[in-house]
Design a protein that fits this description.
Length: 322
């Protein structure tokens, strides 16, 4: 089942906020509905957001009133991940050719992400086996499986490929804010695939590495800067520090579409803050208390062992350049 797709003139997507309790498919017919779904994380994950952005332009092209403003709202629905804006811009470039051309481009974005997932799974599994040894115990962060892509996935795709090869030890899935995406979504996908796993509280990752319970860290990215800095879900930086201290590989698996040569380093990236309500609901918030709730952080390239895309392996630990 595809996370997101174009079906009979509308966008259909799995509502990730309903998982794991129920599998619900939303049918979305307007850009306004799609923007709302993106902002409340009904659809998320860098590749899936790129597809959502492109399909959103296909929706806009069928309702040509004030298309430019509509496309701009879609492009800026979430500011940190580069894929959303890139998918929007790519499909929007076909607007002068008409709605059919826009849809064709959006479907091309979808199909390219599907192909990229398969290539990343194989390349990522090969590298993890090389770096982490036989039957590695891997720690993942956020959700990087099919839910974050269209099918397959990025980092979790590589983990699942190791499982298919009977070459995986076990998985620790960190809880991952916002909305506990690891505990809800990654755990759901691992369970469906029959992969042995445990869920770890986010703060436990570096300690578990230090205690020798992890052979490698593998996760995705929402943006990879020109210098190799990695923008990913909050908590990634802490795992990278833990991996460096424990002397284990820290591997990023992400599609080429997340590589952003126009952003020199992580200090240039706008980091989305999700607000206090997700952390301290107003019904339970002490008077005068606020919260800091960044959705992402920046992991310096010096802490990254390698970046795997569908086209290449970049060994940052050997000073290879993005």
């Amino acid at each position: 089942m595809r996370t997101i797709d174009w079906v009979d003139g509308a966008v259909e997507l799995i509502d990730q906020t309903a998982l794991p309790a129920r599998l619900t498919v939303l049918r979305i017919g307007t850009v306004e509905e799609l923007v709302a779904a993106i902002q409340r994380l009904a659809v998320r994950g860098a590749p899936a957001l790129g597809v959502a952005g492109a399909l959103g332009v296909a929706l806009a092209a069928r309702h040509p009133d004030d298309v430019a403003a509509t496309v701009r709202r879609l492009e800026t629905a979430r500011p940190t991940a580069v894929n959303l804006a890139r998918g929007v811009r790519r499909a929007a470039a076909r607007l002068p050719e008409g709605a059919d051309a826009v849809l064709a481009e959006a479907l091309a974005v979808r199909d390219e992400e599907i192909a990229a997932s398969a290539a990343m799974a194989a390349r990522g599994a090969d590298l993890l086996a090389e770096l982490c040894g036989a039957r590695p115990r891997l720690l993942t962060h956020c959700n990087t499986g099919a839910l974050a892509a269209v099918v397959g996935g990025t980092a979790l795709g590589a983990v699942l490929e190791l499982h298919r090869r009977d070459a995986l030890g076990a998985v620790l899935a960190s809880e991952t804010r916002p909305l506990l995406q690891g505990a809800r979504l990654t755990a759901w996908e691992l369970g469906r695939a029959g992969v042995p796993y445990r869920v770890a509280v986010d703060g436990a990752g570096p300690f578990l590495m230090a205690r020798g319970e992890v052979d490698g860290v593998v996760l995705g990215a929402d943006r990879i800067c020109a210098n190799g800095d990695v923008i990913n879900k909050i908590g990634t930086y802490a795992h990278a520090l833990g991996a460096r201290r424990a002397g284990i590989p820290f591997v990023v698996v992400a599609p080429e579409s997340t590589v952003d040569p126009d952003t020199a380093g992580g200090e240039e990236v706008e980091i989305e803050d999700r607000g206090a309500e997700e952390v301290l609901p107003s019904s339970a918030r002490p008077d005068g208390v606020d919260a800091v709730n960044p959705a992402f952080d920046v992991t310096p390239h010096e802490l990254v062992t390698a970046i795997v895309t569908e086209r290449r392996v970049i060994r940052l630990d050997r000073a290879e350049r993005v």
